[in-house]
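Name: Ethanolamine ammonia-lyase large subunit
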Amino acid sequence: MTSYQHSIRQRQYQFDSLKTLLAKATPERSGDALAGLIAASAEERVAAQWCLADVPLTTFLNEVVIPYETDEVTRLIIDSHDQAAFAPIRHLTVGGLREWLLDYRTDSQQLAAVAAGITPEMAAAVSKIMRNQDLIAVAKKCQVITRFRNTLGLAGRFSSRLQPNHPTDDPQGIAAAIFDGLLYGCGDAVIGINPATDSPQAMTSLLHLIDELRQRYAMPVQSCVLAHVTTALQVIELGAPVDLVFQSIAGTEAANRSFGIDLALLHEANQAARGLQRGTIGNNVMYFETGQGSALSANAHHGVDQQTCEARAYAVARAFEPLLLNTVVGFIGPEYLYDGKQITRAALEDHFCGKLLGLPMGCDACYTNHAEADQNDIDNLLVLLASAGCTYVMGVPGADDIMLNYQSSSYHDIRFVQTTLGLRPAPEFEAWLQQLGISDQAGRLIANERHRLLQSAAQLGAL
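Structure predicted for Ethanolamine ammonia-lyase large subunit:
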């Protein structure tokens, strides 16, 4: 392994590996402090960032942070690297890549063309030497479009997952929350339920509930019950109406093993869901969630900083061409992202890295009740993410998930962002909202449909 060094004034800082350099260059966060990876001072962090800026991009192909022989995610990253896509930026250093990305002449087409040539570690490295505004400016230029029953990721669009979780999976409670979200114009990314019970019976029941609603109102949306991938495979075999297959993923083989998955299992699920051919305009069928700190919490980080581990999870996602990917940025807790400032920075890093790698990146802008954060932090973060071209965020009743016990963004938060920044939902969904009389041609909500559709919610929940 190569040793790296940089001097500030008369003091020389030494970094014994690329893995160490990446960790020391990372903006401060509690998870890296917990793991003992953080820079000892602000000056050491700056020295690491200066040093990292001079590292050639080709170094990341020759010095891996987790051994190739022992980690299938590393093998995926190296074996799937596209040398032709990498060619236009091959000569650059990390600092040079930053300048190229920020250059106004570097447009969406050029960014899409090099995406397969950028490894997660390259993306993580360049993000570590970028300010928040840099992350926003570059992510805004990255356009990633996916399709199932509607089109996600188009310019000028800002979509939402409608998240009607219920602590007992009560059909009436879930149905009421779904209709409430629809009446706010939410749900175009997915109507996605975290089941209280991960079983084939519970998953099948919830899938039929959403599918009945979708067919009754001819809604151009997709659904997902966020059970484990093995449960999804079972219900596909039983003939349940599965649109998207969900799975939490991480950036190391060991962390994924702690989730009960590997790449072969994800491939099997992807093929099974595609085989159903339920999409009407596309066949992106996977929905992945990630989060900084997941590998560390499973003691499966191999001494790699949590943001670099997170970026490696995007290599896993990229291999399966998902419809949706989102970082659940503050969900794991303040042990990993301590306060609103760290959550905001992590969200912008994750969104930037995901979009740069060619992924349909969303974000659950959230926090747990014991974090040093509040809804004002989430308001700020939502505006920043939407300005950066984020594909979608979460719509949770009252921003309070009563089943998962954390704070997120609400239906009216999404309307605030769309209205304030002049953004619209997916075009097919927008047309449906207008056709049903939920919104007008200007995208403004119409109140007189609310009573009738909430009555329908109660009837549907009784099915």
